[in-house]
Each structure stands twice: as structure tokens, then as C-alpha cells.
Amino acid sequence: MLSTVSDASSSPTRRALLIGIEYGHGPINARLSGTHSDVENTMELLMTKYHFQRKDITILVDEPGTEDDMKPTRINMVRELQALVQDPSPGGGYFILYAGHCVQLDAQGDSVEKDEYLVPMDAVHEGPSAYIHDNLMRGDDLKRILVDPIATVPKARLTAVFDCCHSGTVLDLCHHRCNRAYNLKSTYRGLCRRVKEAFPEPGETAQAFAEPWTMLAFEKVFMSMSVGNRREKRSSSSTCDGYCTRTRRTDGGNVLCISACKDSQSAFGNEHGGSLTRALVATLIQRKNHIRF
């Protein structure tokens, strides 16, 4: 969750992990450009506007001359992901940027669905197969490493930015549809949920849709927008349909995943960086109020 504050320097302890992979050692069709710029621009934003200390920011890039233990290999990424959220403190803020490849592969077992995998630099090589499967990082593993430790700590916050293809549900969060905020369908779903919460009885809900601009409906619907901005936790067997009940939570942390696209889509970038990271950095630079991560 993000919240507006007047002085970011008063924030609790924060840590950040920035990963940028261009795969310069791999085949031409696997190479990316601009991901190192994403890391540099995000680090500058965190330090200059949000007062992160350089010692609290870890960078993994595959630039020439980078020490082996700071390259974005699978073993190094796992180590630094675990270190990012190790012993999270109440009210602590944790931030991760991943700019690189993400691929979809058939899910394990008999499922017809697909799983999302991050692609560390050592999962790409010059060879007959596209990827070294054992070096890929599955979304379920990311959830176990990043999300589970934060979820149990009151008011801890993890903000994860995935500027890569197929990243919509890469963290396997419960509410990947009701939290979308980029199209008309998402706006409609949000309005339906708020009307349902404001008018829980079937007759009241129908009346609110039939007479949406009465003072009573207007007041109840829009007052509910500022109440309970955390979503009710759902069981792993349930599926978010976009109309989940909103509720206040005070017993755990919050995880916000900002993805460049849906699972079925591809992201865009060039030598200046990924489109998501550039837009995010530009937007936050222009904000007059600070955002607390």
C-alpha cells in the first residue's frame, strides 16, 4: 500500500533491491536494452526524493565489470530477495524493481494454465534450448520469498515493480482483478463493489443502480471509497473475479505489485528503459507530496 506523507525522512527502516538484466551474453533475440537505465533512474528517484540511503539499496546488474556475486544470477537473486525482507519490522518499507525477461510456461501437473517465471541472466545461454529451466524463478517461489514474510508483520509494506512481459500475476497475489486500475472495466468493477458494500441488501442494491444519483446513493457510494482500502484475504482455492469485498486489515502487512502488463501480454521498452519504469519515475518526480514506500 502507498500512503502520502509530508516528510519521507521520518519513514521507518527501508530497503530496496533493483535488478536490471540485458542478457548481453545471450542470443541476439534474447537481449534487452534500457534495463540498466531503469535501475539507475529508480535509484536516483529513491535517493533524491524519498531519502533512501545508498547502503540500503542493493543493485544486481549484468554490466561488464560487475563482481560475480552482484550479477543477477539465480543464486544471487534468491539471496538478495531473501535479504530484502529478512526480519521485516512493523511499519517497515521494502521496494523491489525487476527489469528483465519474464516467460510463461505450461504449469506443472495436469493443469491447462501457465506459470510465470523470471529469467535470471544465467537462465539464458547460446544453445539449442531457449532457457535453462533449472535457473528460472517461478512466481510461486517469489510469493514464498517476498510476500509471506511481509503478510504477517503489522503495517509492513512491500512495493514490487515488475517491468517485464507476462507479469500481471507474477507474485500470485489474491486480488489481481479487483485491484486493477487501468481501464473502464476496472472502474466499473470498483463502482459495483462500492455499491454492493453501501447497499448490502438485494433490494437496496437494485434501487441504488436504478437511482444512482439520489443524494443517499451518492453519499453512501462515495463515502465507502475512503473506507477499508485493504482487501479481504481469500483462500488459495478461491479466485478473484474483480468484485471482492473490501475490508480493513490491522493484523498484517501490505503488498502492492505494479506490473507492466497482464499475463497474456508483452511489455515495451527501448534503450531509454522500460515504458512502465519511465512512466512511474516521471510521475513520482512530478508529485508535490512524497509517497511512502
TrEMBL record:
One of its GO terms (biological process) is proteolysis. Gene3D superfamilies: 3.40.50.12660. InterPro entries: Metacaspase (IPR050452), Pept_C14_caspase (IPR011600). One of its GO terms (molecular function) is cysteine-type endopeptidase activity. One of its GO terms (cellular component) is cytoplasm. Coiled coil: none annotated. Residues 13-288 form the Peptidase C14 caspase domain. Belongs to the peptidase C14B family. This is Peptidase C14. It comes from Guyanagaster necrorhizus.
